[in-house]
């Protein structure tokens, strides 16, 4: 099999976050791959981290699961200490700080964090701790170039 043909068969994660009329919509496919091997066809790539916040994950599953446990614990501590739920922007920056602290031995993940407090909020986070608030949509994972093409062509603001 040629390298070009192998590259066409290669698959990975695609996740998408959209802001629409008064809501955030997160989507992801459910296949987990290890190179060309499909390890699972029923993987959860959208994880609720609080009552009003969820994140999509692309990258190493083990890193994402460890990070999910860490984030949920931090958000519970915030709620206990502050006696209120954390704003989506604050949660996104907290997650970015966790990622930044591990930038030399990173969690190999790309995250989209979405939620609703005063309004819908959407943030893209990189493994290096970068955080960017997105105003319309974002996609992550190896399928994101295709998703961005579709979003740029078809997404319409309401």
For this entry, give a set of tags.
globular; Glutamine Phosphoribosylpyrophosphate, subunit 1, domain 1; 5-stranded antiparallel beta sheet; 4 helices; 3-stranded antiparallel beta sheet; 10 strands; 158 residues; 33% strand
Q: Strand count, sense and closure of the main sheet?
A: 5 strands, antiparallel
CATH topology term: Glutamine Phosphoribosylpyrophosphate, subunit 1, domain 1
Assess the beta-strand content as a share of residues.
25-35%
Structural class by sheet pairing and helices: alpha+beta
Q: In DSSP terms, counting alpha (H) and pi (I) runs of 4 or more, how many helices?
A: 4
Proportion of helical residues: 25-40%
Structural account:
By secondary structure, this protein is an alpha+beta fold. It has a single domain, classed as 4-Layer Sandwich (Glutamine Phosphoribosylpyrophosphate, subunit 1, domain 1), CATH 3.60.20. It is 34% helix and 33% strand. It has helices spanning 3-9, 61-82, 88-101, 144-154, and strands spanning 15-20, 23-28, 32-34, 37-40, 46-50, 53-59, 109-116, 120-125, 131-133, 137-140. The strands form 3 sheets. The protein has a 5-stranded antiparallel beta sheet with strand order 5-6-7-8-9, with helices on one face. A 3-stranded antiparallel beta sheet has the order 2-1-10, with helices on one face. The protein has a two-stranded antiparallel ribbon with strand order 3-4. The radius of gyration is 16 Å and the shape is globular. It starts with a helix and ends with a helix.
